[in-house]
């Protein structure tokens, strides 16, 4: 009785009049109630009668005058003169009823399997409607199927009836199948509904098909009303009218045959608006979900396809897109537009000229920089990726670009993609299955995934395609007529991922060139200046750059032949770390890609070409960059993570908290927490420094603080940092040629008298890069005379200590060739306070080293450092945080803020700083160096 009373109260929340109607052996019992306790007692007695098959109530608000027909009583066996509630007797609609019923013979109860199938479909419908903005429904078990009741507030008129009818028709089309249907007959206003708490008796009660009691499964504490616009959108999701007919003369497509021909599985088929509706087994538009896709062929032959999920357009027409995924593109003739002009012979001639006598790599990069400011290393990675497609003996180079949102990742990729011939491009959102079914893909296609999350299935496709770069990847499926169909992704396709976060799976990341977009303040200023200059132009600047056509011709020429590339000096290539066995292969593929770009300028042999030292220099430059200031190839760290590690090393912390690191980095607490611990987003786990870097560990501790007359204890999460382990872990990006091996006349690709080293380009140290090599280490410039000008930037060396070779730097990932009698780094790099760069001019000797930074300094700098204390409000760039050492002796108050306790001291600047002022100094230094 309590369950019946609760049901009546929920179904009629305004305490209006309800009709109770019972069906039993061909007769009807009925009564009207406004006293719900009386209703519960009457229904309880009626439910005890085994001849009663089911007890129902009106859902919508009944005219109160009808109470006088049978006031708070049940009349048994109504006669023909006894009226029941009609549609005209409903004064307002208050429910959208969704009845999910299993398919079974009439007059019998459902089996447990049929019953469970209906409940499962009800959950799918509720999840879908929640995605569409519907509030939580009242969920119930009808005894044989499932109910969903959504609260509405509609008048009882034709428009409301059409609205409810359309909503139920949409749900029926999208979710009904051969086993379960959504009842579309429940659109009339006077519809009666199973009263929860009563038995449902259809046929005999057998073990296979038992009688069950209807019950409420879940009722929200507050049932929200569905907004009218949500109902309108649901009702209008599927087209109610036939789309325009196909053009005269065009081939009429048989949709059923087309779906079978292209291996698109169909879950169910039903008549629809005079045509046929096909519910697809899997969504071809997105890998984020499987259900929801459909296609309709109307009586006039027109076709409509879409997906009911909002992320897939929410029912918008997507048939042209679906067709384009599976049919080879054919250009449509347009009467108003002239046919495309043939390729200008002048463009082809110019492209050949650049390839034979010019610098094709520089031309491609310069063309890129006409539309995209900076990010030269990103562009080089993309160019090398394209070139790797045309090398016979390569495993392919794929690129993952990460960085903060709004810093130009997508623009960099789309700008470079414009240089690729159109038939080799695929950009946008695509599902894993669509890649296999797309018949227009050619070998050597570029896949650009712009800031999308890779599903697990798509990551598996990427791993398979990259691991088997030189062969096509097959996917076997079964058509609707149970015939085997084999679909393929062609060979030599490269993948470009433009992501705010990491690529996701470590196996995916290990196959990619991991490069960071430049998000420094200086880059922001350069982009702004470029935008201003572009807006000043009066010629519009919207036409295509003629050099883009030449770039496409360059790639057409390079794709025509696929040579084998030999690296004669490969045995002389040395690596400072080979923990990740894929990275040496990446360097060799970079060398081959460089040789391919300069194919017409390289020594040829039968079937191939030989890479020379220029190719090693170009490849080593890119490799050093993506292991330093523009990437985390070896360590797999993001730019923020690399900055955090460099900051901890610079601060000299052996232990630190999230709050300490947050203040030093200038980030939010949440961002800093994620840098250390990692996080999970959309089902993908992103690891943090605790997992990536062996130098960082975490432990719980109890801290005691003395108060005024009492001691307070609290838990503290502390992170420990091992500087020695960090240096050993972070130096693995160095590559060089061993001058003692494989030289001489037997190795024409490598002269014996020159040692090319890129080991340890100290990129993160903030020195300006050399324009020719992208490295600030003179030893990386293929000039042995300059090798003695670069010194070790090892930190915390005593004054006068000779710098040793092969000691890794703290902030970077390489190690620098040292020279005990080199040049003053500060003068030659132009990093000293107010001291101009002397690069290319006379060089000062470097008889001493900076105590904290390990930088060799000339006597002029030493003399400048002894002139006394710095100003009390230091300007940006005046104090160098690398000059400071953390000390344990009492220093008194901070010389800058005059309030904090000084814990850092610079002997040269004669300045003492507190923790906060030193952290600010580190932030300013990082900002100048572009590490954020």
From TrEMBL:
InterPro entries: P-loop_NTPase
Segments for region (Disordered): 326-347, 737-758, 830-855
Ranges of compositional bias, category Basic and acidic residues: 326-337
Organism domain of life: Archaea
The protein's name: Uncharacterized protein
Organism name: Methanoculleus formosensis
């Amino acid at each position: 009785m309590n369950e019946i009373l609760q049901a009546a109260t929920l179904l009629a929340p305004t305490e209006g009049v309800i009709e109770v109607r019972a069906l039993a052996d061909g007769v009807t019992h009925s009564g009207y109630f406004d006293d719900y306790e009386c209703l519960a007692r009457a229904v309880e007695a009626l439910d005890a009668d085994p001849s009663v098959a089911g007890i129902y109530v009106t859902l919508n608000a009944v005219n109160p005058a009808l109470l006088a027909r049978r006031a708070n009583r049940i009349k048994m066996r109504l006669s023909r003169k006894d009226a029941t509630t009609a549609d005209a007797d409903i004064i307002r609609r208050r429910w959208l009823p969704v009845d999910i019923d299993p398919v079974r013979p009439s007059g019998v109860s459902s089996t447990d399997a049929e019953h469970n199938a209906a409940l499962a479909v009800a959950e799918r419908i509720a999840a879908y409607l929640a995605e569409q903005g519907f509030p939580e429904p009242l969920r119930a078990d009808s005894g044989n199927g499932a109910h969903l009741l959504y609260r509405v507030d509609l008048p009882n008129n034709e428009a409301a009836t059409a609205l409810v009818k359309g909503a139920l028709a949409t749900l029926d089309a999208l979710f009904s199948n051969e086993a379960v249907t959504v009842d579309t007959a429940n659109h009339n206003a006077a519809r009666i509904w199973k009263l929860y708490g009563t038995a449902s008796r259809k046929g005999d009660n057998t073990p296979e098909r038992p009688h069950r009691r209807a019950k409420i499964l879940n009722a929200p504490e507050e049932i929200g009303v569905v907004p009218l616009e949500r109902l309108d959108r649901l009702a209008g999701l599927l087209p109610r009218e036939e789309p325009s007919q196909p053009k005269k003369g065009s081939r009429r497509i048989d949709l059923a045959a087309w779906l079978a021909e292209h291996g698109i599985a169909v879950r169910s088929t039903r008549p629809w608006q005079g045509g046929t509706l096909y519910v697809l087994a899997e969504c071809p538009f997105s890998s984020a979900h499987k259900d929801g896709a459909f296609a309709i062929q109307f009586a006039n032959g027109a076709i409509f396809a879409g997906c009911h999920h909002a992320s897939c357009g929410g029912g918008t027409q997507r048939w042209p897109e679906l067709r384009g995924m599976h049919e080879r593109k054919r250009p449509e003739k347009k009467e108003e537009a002239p046919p495309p002009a043939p390729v200008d012979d002048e463009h082809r001639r110019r492209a050949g000229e650049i390839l034979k006598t010019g610098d094709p790599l520089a031309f491609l990069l310069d063309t890129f920089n006409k539309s995209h400011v900076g990010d030269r290393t990103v562009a080089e990675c993309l160019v090398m990726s394209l070139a790797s497609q045309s090398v016979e003996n390569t495993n392919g180079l794929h690129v993952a670009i990460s960085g903060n949102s709004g810093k130009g990742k997508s623009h960099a990729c789309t700008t470079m993609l414009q240089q690729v011939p159109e038939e080799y491009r695929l950009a946008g959102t695509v599902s894993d299955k669509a890649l296999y079914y797309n018949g227009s893909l050619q070998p050597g296609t570029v896949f650009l995934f712009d800031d999308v999350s890779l599903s697990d299935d798509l990551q598996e496709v990427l791993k398979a395609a990259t691991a088997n770069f030189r062969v096509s990847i097959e996917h076997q499926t079964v058509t609707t007529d149970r015939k085997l169909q084999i679909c393929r992704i062609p060979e030599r396709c490269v993948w470009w991922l433009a992501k705010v976060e990491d690529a996701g799976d470590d196996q995916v990341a290990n196959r990619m060139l991991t490069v960071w977009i430049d998000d420094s303040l200086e880059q922001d200023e350069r982009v702004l200046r470029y935008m201003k200059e572009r807006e000043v132009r009066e010629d519009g600047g919207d036409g295509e750059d003629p050099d883009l056509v030449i770039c496409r011709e360059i790639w057409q020429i390079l794709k025509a032949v696929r040579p084998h590339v030999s690296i004669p000096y490969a045995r002389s290539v040395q690596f400072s770390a080979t923990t990740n066995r894929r990275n040496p292969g990446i360097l060799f593929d970079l060398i081959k890609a460089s040789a391919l770009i300069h194919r017409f300028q390289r020594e040829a042999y039968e079937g191939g070409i030989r890479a020379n030292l220029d190719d090693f220099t170009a490849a080593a430059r890119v490799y050093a960059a993506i292991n330093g200031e523009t990437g985390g190839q070896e360590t797999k760290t993001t730019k923020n993570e690399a900055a955090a590690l460099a900051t901890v090393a610079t601060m000299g912390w052996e232990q630190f908290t999230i709050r300490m690191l947050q203040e030093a980095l200038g980030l939010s607490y949440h961002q800093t927490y994620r840098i250390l611990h990692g996080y999970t987003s959309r089902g993908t786990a992103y690891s943090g420094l605790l997992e990536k870097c062996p130098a960082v560990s975490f432990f719980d501790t109890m801290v005691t603080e003395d108060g005024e007359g009492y001691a307070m204890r609290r838990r503290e999460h502390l992170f420990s940092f091992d500087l020695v382990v960090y240096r050993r872990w972070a130096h693995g990006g160095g590559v060089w040629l061993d001058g003692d091996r494989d030289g001489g006349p037997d190795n024409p690709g490598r002269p014996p008298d020159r040692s090319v080293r890129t080991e340890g380009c100290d990129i993160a140290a903030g020195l300006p890069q050399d324009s020719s090599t992208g490295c600030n280490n003179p030893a990386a410039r293929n000039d042995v005379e300059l090798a003695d000008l670069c010194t070790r930037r090892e930190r915390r060396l005593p004054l006068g200590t000779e710098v040793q070779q092969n000691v890794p730097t703290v902030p970077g990932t390489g190690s620098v060739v040292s020279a005990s009698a080199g040049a003053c780094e500060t003068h030659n790099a132009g990093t000293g306070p107010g001291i101009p760069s002397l690069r290319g001019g006379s060089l000062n000797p470097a008889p001493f080293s900076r105590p904290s930074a390990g930088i060799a300094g000339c006597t002029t700098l030493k003399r400048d450092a002894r002139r006394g204390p710095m100003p009390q409000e230091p300007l940006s760039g005046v104090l160098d945080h690398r000059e400071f050492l953390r000390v344990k002796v009492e220093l008194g108050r901070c010389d800058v803020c005059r309030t904090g306790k000084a814990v850092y001291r610079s002997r040269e600047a004669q300045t003492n700083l507190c923790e906060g002022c030193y952290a600010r100094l580190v932030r300013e230094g990082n900002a100048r160096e572009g590490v954020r």
